TrEMBL record:
<dbReference type="InterPro" id="IPR016039">
    <property type="entry name" value="Thiolase-like"/>
</dbReference>
<dbReference type="Pfam" id="PF00108">
    <property type="entry name" value="Thiolase_N"/>
</dbReference>
<dbReference type="InterPro" id="IPR020617">
    <property type="entry name" value="Thiolase_C"/>
</dbReference>
<dbReference type="InterPro" id="IPR020616">
    <property type="entry name" value="Thiolase_N"/>
</dbReference>
<comment type="similarity">
    <text>Belongs to the thiolase-like superfamily. Thiolase family.</text>
</comment>
<dbReference type="GO" id="GO:0016747">
    <property type="term" value="F:acyltransferase activity, transferring groups other than amino-acyl groups"/>
</dbReference>
<feature type="domain" description="Thiolase N-terminal">
    <location>
        <begin position="8"/>
        <end position="263"/>
    </location>
</feature>
<dbReference type="InterPro" id="IPR002155">
    <property type="entry name" value="Thiolase"/>
</dbReference>
<feature type="domain" description="Thiolase C-terminal">
    <location>
        <begin position="271"/>
        <end position="392"/>
    </location>
</feature>
<keyword id="KW-0012">Acyltransferase</keyword>
<dbReference type="Pfam" id="PF02803">
    <property type="entry name" value="Thiolase_C"/>
</dbReference>
<protein>
    <submittedName>
        <fullName>Steroid 3-ketoacyl-CoA thiolase</fullName>
    </submittedName>
</protein>
<keyword id="KW-0808">Transferase</keyword>
Length: 393
């Protein structure tokens, strides 16, 4: 399969990230308001006429309750412009990279020339269902595991740590590195260009600053020194390596990317920030749900004609620390280029918004460092993994 050449990124933005576990400030913002402010921020920053946008594809954690059905269409029509437009809502974990892929596929098929792909997670206000809810015991039986195992991040993480020989000390060090890197970037103001401010309507219309909530990683050190093992796997066991400190807390976040054809960008006198080179979607066995990231990355690299040594920035989802560590061992990218601005362990797991959040951070970082190629990869419970490669001009 040849590399994609005609789909370009005009801009990408995200909201500040509020860690749900701490009752972050974004809990005061209704999900539709949060999405509306980020979409408006993207359109205003680009300076494009909203009527030029032909479709909005939105990934969300639930098409119900406060998220409402067809959240993208409702928000666009009600808050961005009075002109309605086609919109699709996707309810799949980590699905904003799916929204991005669908957007690019539609563009290349000629369905439209200008499209927005977005993701929203608003767990504080909308709630979240247990990840194993709705599991099918019959399907799980086909993979020689129970329904909980087929949808358990804890069991998948421990299985990967055991199989790859990743010790708890390595997981501790990686998690601390995520905190340190994100905090340093935040202090330097390097996240500012990718974040659009959000107005908190619940407290006198005050505006939320563009600094993210980044927790301290000191508890990891205390845990290690005290010998406590807060196992992430409910089955317990003294030989378990993964614990809750190696997992990302859920975070409220919206991220959005404006995509169009290169021809339409020229007609609108807009300068693309990057182009899409390739996508990949693969699956792994459910009991090794996070193992597909390596395969997805290698497939995307092969399709783009890019070697590991050519990657200037890599974003591997940090919902679990074991995943990027196993990926690094398999692919061989230098640690300097792997999640160089921290990741979900420090910033929080953006759920359905994670794919576009990672894309947004990667794009900004590539520009700041003068890099050319960037790879972003996400995994999902059930065994699927998706990767995308972008190239700066």
């Amino acid at each position: 399969m040849s590399a994609i050449t005609d789909a370009v990124v005009i801009d990408a933005v995200r909201s500040p990230m509020g860690t749900s576990a701490t009752g972050g400030p974004l809990r005061l913002v209704h999900p539709t308001d949060l999405l509306a402010q980020v979409l408006s921020g993207l359109v205003n920053r680009v300076g494009i006429d909203p009527t030029e946008i032909e479709a909005v594809i939105t990934a969300c954690s639930a098409r119900e309750a406060k998220h409402s059905p067809a959240i993208g269409r409702r928000v666009w029509h009600g808050a961005v412009t009075s002109q309605p437009l086609p919109a699709t809502a996707i309810e799949v974990a980590g699905s904003s990279e799916l929204a991005t892929r669908i957007a690019v596929q539609g563009l290349l098929a000629g369905t439209y020339q200008v499209v927005i792909a977005a993701g929203i997670q608003s767990m504080c206000s909308a709630g979240a269902r247990p990840r194993w809810q709705g599991s099918d015991p019959r399907t799980a039986k086909q993979f020689s595991c129970n329904a909980r195992e087929a949808n358990s991040a804890a069991i998948a993480a421990e299985a990967m740590a055991q199989r790859c020989g990743i010790a708890r000390e390595e997981l501790d060090a990686f998690a601390l590195r995520s905190f340190d890197r994100a905090a340093a970037v935040n202090r330097a103001g390097e996240f500012n260009r990718e974040v659009t401010p959000v107005r908190l309507r619940g407290e006198g219309n005050t505006e939320c600053g563009i600094s993210d909530e980044i927790a301290t990683g000191e508890y990891l050190v205390r845990d290690h020194r005290s010998g406590e093992h807060r196992s992430f796997d409910a089955r317990g066991g003294s030989d378990l390596q993964v614990n809750q400190a190696h997992a990302a807390p859920p975070a409220d976040c919206v991220a959005a990317v404006l995509i169009m054809s290169e021809q339409r960008a020229r007609e609108l006198c807009l300068t693309p920030r990057a182009r899409f080179r390739s996508f990949a979607l693969v699956t792994a066995a459910p009991e090794f749900a996070c193992a597909g990231t390596t395969k997805a990355s290698l497939v995307a690299m092969d399709r783009a004609g890019v070697m590991a040594a050519q990657l200037d920035h890599v974003e591997v989802n940090e919902a679990l620390a074991v995943v990027p560590l196993a990926w690094q061992a398999a692919v061989g990218v230098h640690p300097e280029f792997l999640n160089p601005r921290g990741g979900a362990i420090a910033l929080g797991d953006a759920g359905p918004a994670a794919g576009v959040r990672q894309l947004t951070t990667m794009l900004t970082a590539l520009e700041d460092t003068g890099g050319r190629f960037g790879l972003s990869v996400n995994w999902k419970l059930g065994g699927a993994a998706a990767a995308v490669i972008i190239e700066r001009p």
